């Protein structure tokens, strides 16, 4: 019966960890309680400090104001009757503003309803600011009586030196006699202080300090705004989101930390904004739920925790104002929680250290067994790279470790052998890896692997290590494995372990040969193990041999096709063999060079093989090109050179001239004259035939005057007496006119309708881009006729020997190459062979054929093959229409082609700088073609 177990290491570690966690938890809880209490106490002290600061901020501007008012009320200013007299006392008012920055305005109101007020020009919210000059420093607002008894409302602007800058008439709808400060000041001999209210002109919240004059007919006052108190609230916030406000018993707002949110817009209102309009419900909640002033209480509002306190403001006499403070609990206790987190981190670190200590303590007890357990798990997870060892002093543990190590090595090498058999493509490397693994497995120093060679009848050594084995001759392959092993051991004169390798047909393909480990028991087990491996190895070897045979066969077929194409024409013989030589050499140099523009170009082994096959098969489509087109050395050549037909016509005309001479003599013409005329005509015929024969060679460019002479000669006629419909093939007979009246007058040279061979019933080949049958992306223009054998048409070819139809047929070889290769079932690793092989006539400017690809559409391999093809064609000495060019001539032409964007500049330049052109020339060109020249002259700048 299985019982649940627990690790000793885990028991020790858990015990220490639980004890440390309990201790840390108690300490953290106590620290948290103390931190909260201390924070609450500090908050109460801070709230008291805030309340005291607000009281001082209000009391500070009130103290000097009383002295200032006493001085002003006893000046002659209170008895000044005109605006001019009052302005003369302006310096006194300005000095009051300059000495007391908290004072917003200084004014005098008279029992006549007049008022004279001075304020700074920098005050905000003044309605007539748009009319104020930029240099203004002080503003005087005046309401005075005219001699007629009506009021005159004026505004004066003064600069810093009290020079009048500008004067306006602006309505000043205020009667000082109706203001609270006027009434309070006349009602007392002391300094009067109003309750906070909204100033008439600026819309600020503030108070007025006032005192009556000596005649008790005027009142002198100072306006002090409470905006500064709001600024004090903003500065004294306990946390970033603390709400602080001063309200009266009716919840009218006296000051708020963010004065802009009070929403005071009506400058003519005297009503303070209320707390309800501020939309801060938490402040209302604190006021409503506070029963004792100066006590910090906790509140729950809108799923959030808050702390709140309410304290009275004593600096404003005769009024009941309170400061209300609301503090978010999460911000107030943020530092507390931060300290707790830090302490928790320290505690957890200590716990972790103790956990490590406990873990190490338990590990020291169970380490050897645990280590071996993990190694067994690694083997179970197919991880055979970690060494198996144990430092335990227990013999059983050491033996267990050794056994596990041996098991691990055996399984690892077995898997490695299996991996090699499945993955390694190269037969020799596969055999080397298998031999190495087997030798390590049996801890042997030497061994080898034989493969059977059917042609020689020998077991030939394929790979060996630590010893040299001789090949073994076998005369009878039908013997049993036991006899075979005996024969091999006798010939190698050793006591090796021999394991025969047989394929799926039970045919001998080779054998393993390993040094005998010596231990009989181990030998039997080893032989059994190797026999199992030999089965997989035999299949793998047979597979590699089949693949190698298939590759050899494919290469042979490719070489056969290339050779057949070259053998098809004595003039192009060797082209299909030489182009791969140039292309492969050039590509290898590109891959080796890491300093050129191709430093980033890389190719896998599969891609190299793909390019090699494409290079060999690049002209396989020439199989479909008629020999008379490929070999056409003269303009009239088809299966034979038709110049002989034309010569025979000249022979006829030559004899007709002679017959005509004889007829003329019989008819009485002077024999001498007749013979002279005959000789002249025959000489002319000889000259004209020589011209026709020269045109047929096509060695020079035909000029317009040559064509005119050709057409003139063609107009000669001769009589045909025999039926030209006889002896024809069915197809040819279909094109010949049947009804003839002999003899027929024929032109000496003519383009007959029968010479124009139409396309077959299948129609024009699918090479045009618009043709729906064109699935290969060709972009070529097909000629009107499949062939045109017209004598004048062909003799009139201006350059070379090919007409348009024949040139299309020549170019069609690349179309056929792509179609033929696209029809072959290439594996995915070689799927680009048709494109590589079919692009060697494309040009970098997109004017090539058959697809009009440009440089962007072509890869390095396509560009390399194109350069190789042109270089071989220019230097080949076996063309019917030209002789092989010298190296300098060929390179000069290719340099021009690179400049004209026909060849890739980088590949062409590399052909020169790498020396590939010269290596090829030394192996394939005649000595007279290899001339010296400076390659720098032909390097093309990109």
Keywords:
942 residues, alpha+beta, Beta-Lactamase, Hypothetical protein af1432, 9-stranded antiparallel sheet, 5-stranded antiparallel sheet, 47% helix, elongated, membrane, HAMP_dom, transmembrane helix, HD_GYP_dom, transmembrane
Describe this structure in words.
It is a single chain. By secondary structure, the chain is of the alpha+beta class. Among the domains are: 229-334, 2-Layer Sandwich (Beta-Lactamase), CATH 3.30.450; 424-553, Beta-Lactamase; 569-623 and 809-937, Hypothetical protein af1432 (Orthogonal Bundle), CATH 1.10.3210.10; 643-801, no CATH class. The protein has 27 helices and 23 strands. The strands form five sheets. Strands 1, 2, 3, 4, 5, 6, 7, 8 and 9 form a nine-stranded antiparallel beta sheet that branches. A five-stranded antiparallel beta sheet has the order 11-10-14-13-12, with helices on both faces. Helix 10 (395-423) packs antiparallel against helix 11. The longest helix is centred in the first third of the chain and has 66 residues, at 8-73. The mean pLDDT is 78. Pfam families: GAF (PF01590), HD (PF01966), HD_5 (PF13487). Residues 363-416 form the HAMP domain. Residues 719-926 form the HD-GYP domain. The chain crosses the membrane at residues 6-29. Keywords: Membrane, Transmembrane, Transmembrane helix.
Sequence-ordered SSE layout with sheet pairings:
Elements: H1 8-73, H2 83-88, H3 90-99, E1 103-110, E2 115-120, E3 138-145, E4 151-158, E5 164-168, H4 180-186, E6 192-193, E7 197-198, E8 205-212, E9 218-225, H5 227-235, E10 243-248, E11 253-256, H6 275-278, H7 281-288, E12 297-301, E13 304-313, E14 321-328, H8 329-332, H9 334-380, H10 395-423, H11 427-442, E15 447-453, E16 458-465, E17 472-473, H12 481-492, E18 497-502, E19 508-514, H13 520-568, H14 575-592, H15 605-616, H16 627-630, H17 643-666, H18 671-697, H19 704-714, E20 717-720, H20 730-733, E21 744-747, E22 756-757, E23 787-788, H21 791-795, H22 804-822, H23 833-837, H24 860-875, H25 887-899, H26 905-913, H27 916-924
Antiparallel strand pairs: 1-2, 1-9, 2-3, 3-4, 4-5, 6-8, 7-8, 8-9, 10-11, 10-14, 12-13, 13-14, 15-16, 15-19, 16-17, 18-19, 20-21, 22-23
Helix pairs in contact: 1-5, 1-9, 9-10, 10-11, 10-13, 11-13, 14-15, 14-24, 14-27, 17-18, 24-25
